[in-house]
Specification:
It is built from six helices and twelve strands. It is α+β, with helices and mostly antiparallel strands. It folds into two domains: 137 residues, Ribosomal Protein S5, domain 2 (2-Layer Sandwich), CATH 3.30.230; 75 residues, 2-Layer Sandwich (Alpha-Beta Plaits), CATH 3.30.70.120. A hairpin with a 2-residue loop joins strand 4 and strand 5.
Length: 248
Amino acid sequence: MAALFLLYPFILPFCCAVRPIPWGDSVKRRDKTVTIKKGAAATESYITVKKEGFAEITEKKSRFLAAVYPVKRASEAEELIKSAKKKHFDARHNVWAYSLLDGTCRYTDDGEPSGTAGVPILEIMKKQKITDCLIIVTRYFGGILLGTGGLCRAYSAAAAAGLEAAGKVTLVTGTTLTVSCDYTDFTPLCRILEDFGAAVEDQEFGARVSVSFTVRNDRKESLSARLTDAFCGKLSPKPLAQKFIPDE
């Protein structure tokens, strides 16, 4: 007990130096992979990539191959990462980062100095406000060290080039509805749907015609009012599902 009392002045500063873990975003580090999980915020629209995109840049003899993919789930991103590692098994580094609409962000430096590879890629996505996106940058080492600043710039440039190749699209919330009409009302119905930018998803021709279509939520009420006026209340579209659609 006396020995503990004598050590108290040395223990106290150490204990006070320990910082508490914040209760906000949770950060998990496992196998040099960082996961940042944030609560998903309700949104009426978001930006993602149109399609897969590929680009390559060279910096001091090192080749940086960027591959950009639209993804909806973490499992989908992980499968693409596995495929990239298998394809580029002979590369020095396979760095990646992805951001999902549910607030999940993951990245890795894959052996590069901490903060010089995965973070710059993720920051490019944040800067362009892109989500539901995976970016993989594969580096074939050219024999010349780039330094921390050079690495950050190279991985950022490769990611930006990949995003430019993939293109961007804004998605907005929409509702898929179904309606049944007489054959004589089918053509006028299609014209009205076209006027409101509604996309026809399915058509079934039986005793009556059943039409499923998707319209932007900010046009749904005005479309319903137009249908009521045009068909004297005979048509009553019923909602089926909510989904994101291109902002067109």
